[in-house]
Design a protein that fits this description.
Blueprint lengths: L1 H31 L24 E4 L2 H4 L8 E3 L17 E6 L3 H18 L2 E3 L2 E2 H4 L16 H7 L6 E2 L4 H8 L5 E2 L7 H15 L1 E6 L14 H14 L4 H15 L5 E5 L4 H7 L8 H15 L11 H6 L7 H11 L6 E4 L12 H6 L2 E3 L1 H4 L2 H8 L18 H9 L18 H5 L16 H23 L2 E4 L11 H12 L4 E2 L4 H10 L9 H15 L1 H10 L14 E3 L9 E2 L5 E3 L3 E2 L2 H18 L13 E4 L26
Parallel strand pairs: 3-4, 3-5, 3-8, 4-6, 7-8, 9-10, 9-12, 10-11, 12-13, 14-17
Antiparallel strand pairs: 1-18, 2-14, 15-16
Helix pairs in contact: 3-8, 9-19, 10-11, 19-20
Length: 664
């Protein structure tokens, strides 16, 4: 009896201890969960507060993550003509009309080249036709060019450079329909001599010529110093005249304001995962399942059309180690974490196409809680209003394969070959709608990709608008990180155009220019322990990325990107340098081309303006706060203004070197 009573007491004691342990663990969980980072994106879709209602927030920027690049602060945008530059005369050599094929990047680059060619040939340019918008049925509100850009702004901004008209005169339109005028399809790297010797005589003879541009341009990127005025004309077109139509500009800048309304800077990241580019470089094995087959099919088509002169099957991992394949979103996330960006950093995903879908973004979203895109920053109604009214297309475009008649089945049986025959296969499972309606559904049924449907053509036109919005956000972002640029294909890419405009407008802004080949070697070293790398690996990553922000990155960009796209690196032609700033000796290539430096000295009015801004920033700086910011965390400071409109003392603790705009 005594033994049994002891057992009861022991059981009761164990039960009490278990209960106490459970209560303690629940309490710890409750109080510690408030400090954990929630890995869910911000609900930025529809609940953005009006900017007037947002609290006054001052964000203490970590200079190592968000500060400007000091060595590039002396570079200023200056694309004005430097020598005698006559205004075009109405009596010129004739008209040039053009059709532009391709996506957003090719369109933007081609238009700049067209204006330059028109100036070179002393011709009147007809507003070019953007085929991506023309092929989409039902776009009634906008014409071809005005679907994306502001026609009136384009014509007015270039009136001192080139005469631009909206259409051919009536007496020439009929002749164009009868194909009476010569049409050319120049290469993207055509030389000025080609136009002077081959095109100009035919233009003078027929008074009208047509150009078909499908490679993202029609004039070689690098021109001799005697033609620098044509390079500056390219800059004036790309960075001043080519303005998006009003609705796109308003929504794009609203997106930037909403991203900054949270009181912190943000990173814009463009993955560059485009099917055509991946196929060109043979990066199919970086993906899985149907995506690999889609890339290989596209690569086979490029080989068939003569665009690519390589083998169909290549080792994608060797291409990746050579720097020919993109940095995957997971790798970019690891690089951003290695350099010090905290998990709460807002990352804006740019690009209308991310090949591989949301699956390739899962690791990035796991590392950074606030990964957003246009769908989470804009409402559906805002995007719908941007597109404009469109007639509805046929909803039920899906059709089951036709059933075979008994006669067809018997004929197949007779042609099936000698007997004995194997048993017939089991009956097919039903074909579900979602398996055939997707953009990849054809690959399970046929060996060739079907022609784009009306809905596909409409989506391609919509992509131009989405890319335009992402372009605005990427140019205005506090930091930009490209996933795939300088790919060597010879086609302009989205990231390079963004990097070029950021370099022109604000050279000191934080734009990373990663060396994919170097980072591929680093990732191979720590492939088995990517999420817990050694300290030396992290230091190597930081050193490479920090060097890419300044001179080393610009030299590499000039060597790799400028030969195929001038707009990706418009230096030194379209910039000037403040004379008072310290500057090293310019660096030249073997052929005498400037790789770094070589800019003209800025005019006096620009230098005086910069000196005034510098003195003003020094006067406002006051007492600087001690630079003890955490390398991995950023701090927000909630600040309220007093009734008299003065700022509290907390404002003075912000480091003026961080270039923070108090109006953000």
């Amino acid at each position: 009896m005594v033994f049994k009573s002891k057992i009861k007491w022991i059981a009761l004691l164990v039960l009490i201890l278990s209960t106490v342990s459970l209560v303690v663990h629940l309490s710890i969980t409750k109080f510690s969960s408030s400090n954990l980072v929630s890995y869910a994106p911000k609900d930025t879709g529809l609940d953005f507060p009006p900017l007037s209602e947002t609290p006054s927030v001052r964000y203490v920027r970590n200079k190592k993550l968000w500060g400007v690049v000091k060595s590039l602060e002396s570079l200023q945008p200056y694309a004005n003509p430097r020598s005698s530059y006559p205004v075009p005369h109405e009596k010129n050599n004739g008209y040039i009309y053009a059709k532009i094929f391709g996506g957003f990047e090719k369109i933007r680059s081609s238009i700049c080249d067209l204006v330059t060619i028109s100036r070179l040939l002393n011709a009147t340019l007809v507003i070019p036709e953007i085929q991506e918008s023309i092929r989409s049925k039902g776009i009634r509100k906008f014409k071809s060019f005005s679907y994306l850009y502001d026609e009136e702004q384009f014509i007015a901004s270039l009136k001192k450079d080139v005469i631009i008209v909206k259409s051919l005169p009536e007496n020439l339109k009929a002749a164009r329909k009868r194909s009476e005028f010569p049409t050319f399809k120049p290469k993207s790297a055509a030389s000025p001599n080609f136009y002077i010797k081959e095109i100009l005589p035919k233009l003078k003879k027929s008074k009208v010529i047509g150009l078909v541009l499908a490679d993202g341009g029609c004039l070689q990127s690098i021109l001799p110093p005697s033609m620098y005025e044509f390079q500056r004309l390219r800059c004036r077109v790309a960075f001043h005249a080519l303005q998006f139509r009003q609705e796109i500009q308003v929504l794009g800048h609203q997106m930037v304001e909403r991203l900054r309304a949270w009181g912190q800077p943000f990173v814009a990241f463009h993955p560059g995962l485009v099917r055509d580019t991946l196929a060109y470089h043979g990066c199919a094995e970086l993906f899985q399942d149907v995506h690999t087959e889609l890339v290989q099919y596209q690569r086979a088509q490029m080989i068939k059309r003569g665009i690519l002169k390589e083998e169909l099957s290549v080792d994608s991992h060797l291409r990746r180690e050579n720097g020919s394949c993109p940095l995957m979103p997971e790798e970019v996330g690891l690089l951003l974490r290695a350099i010090g960006y905290p998990p709460k950093t807002t990352i804006y995903m740019a690009g209308s196409e991310t090949f591989g879908g949301q699956r390739v973004l899962i690791p990035l979203r796991a590392m950074f809680a606030n990964v957003v895109d246009r769908t989470s920053v804009c409402s559906k109604q805002e995007l719908f209003d941007l597109v404009g009214p469109e007639p509805p297309l046929s909803v039920d475009s899906f059709k089951l394969p036709p059933l075979k008649s008994e006669k067809q089945l018997k004929d197949e049986w007779q042609r099936a070959g000698p007997r004995p025959r194997p048993l017939p296969p089991p009956p097919d499972r039903p074909i579900y709608r979602h398996e055939k309606e997707g953009w990849y559904g054809w690959i399970t049924e046929t060996k060739s990709e079907p022609d784009p449907s009306p809905m596909d053509l409409r989506r391609q036109a919509h992509k131009l608008l989405w890319d335009a919005l992402d372009y605005i956000v990427s140019v205005e972002a506090d930091t930009f990180f490209p996933g795939f640029n300088n790919d060597g294909s010879g086609w302009p890419d989205f990231s390079s155009l963004v990097m070029g405009q950021r370099l022109y407008e604000s050279a000191a802004s934080r734009t990373y220019r990663p060396d994919r080949k170097a980072f591929a070697k680093l990732f191979n070293i720590t492939r088995n322990d990517m999420y817990h790398p050694k300290h030396n690996w992290t230091l190597a990553v930081r050193e490479l990325l920090n060097k890419s922000l300044g001179e080393d990155g610009l030299v590499r960009q000039s060597l790799l990107s400028k030969p195929s796209s001038f707009l990706s690196h418009p230096l030194p032609e379209c910039s000037c340098r403040i004379s008072s700033a310290e500057f090293q000796t310019p660096l030249e290539d073997i052929d005498g081309r400037y790789l770094y430096g070589g800019e003209d000295e800025c005019p006096e009015w620009m230098q005086h303006g910069q000196e005034a801004l510098s003195s003003e920033s020094i006067g406002l700086e006051g007492a600087k706060h001690d630079d003890n910011e955490s390398e991995y965390e950023n701090e927000t400071v909630q600040q309220e203004s007093d009734d008299s409109g003065g700022k509290s003392s907390l404002t003075l603790s912000i480091d003026q070197d961080d270039e923070w705009d108090p109006n953000d």
